[in-house]
Amino acid sequence: MDFKSCNLELMSRLNRAHKPAWYWVPVRVLLVTAMLTLLSFAVSLFLGIIGTVVGASLRGVRPNMAFAYRHVALPVAIIAAAIVLVAAFIMEIRQYRRARALDQIERQMIRAS
């Protein structure tokens, strides 16, 4: 093994932590919220269609697919969007504050050395 290339000063210059930017927090939150809302809409629509078809076949009538959209998938997606929005904001703010604290610690250590 070549230990000559293992230099802490060289590694610290290469591995500079970026300063956390607060303006990326809402972008990431909205992106995650949109993706998980669409996913929950798709899954709930699939389950709603299956339930509608099974229920209609048991009663011997034609299935009303609009019911699956209006009364199953849309309310589930709205509730999921609200939950994901709040949870994503909490997690992203925690992550931002943690990254900011680590950045401050790193700067203090660089100044001290």
Task: Give the arrangement of secondary structure elements.
Layout: H1 8-14, H2 24-59, H3 65-112
In short:
With 113 residues, this protein is mainly α. Helix content is 81%, strand content 0%. The protein is built from three helices and no strands.
Shape descriptor:
elongated
Report mean pLDDT, rounded to a whole number: 89
Biggest sheet record: none
- Unreliable runs, pLDDT <50, ≥5 residues? none
Description:
- The protein is mainly α and 113 residues long.
- The chain has one domain.
- The chain is built from three helices and no strands.
- α2 runs antiparallel to α3.
- The radius of gyration is 25 Å and the shape is elongated.
- The model has no long low-confidence stretch (mean pLDDT 89).
Name a few traits of the molecule.
mainly alpha, elongated, 0% strand, 3 helices
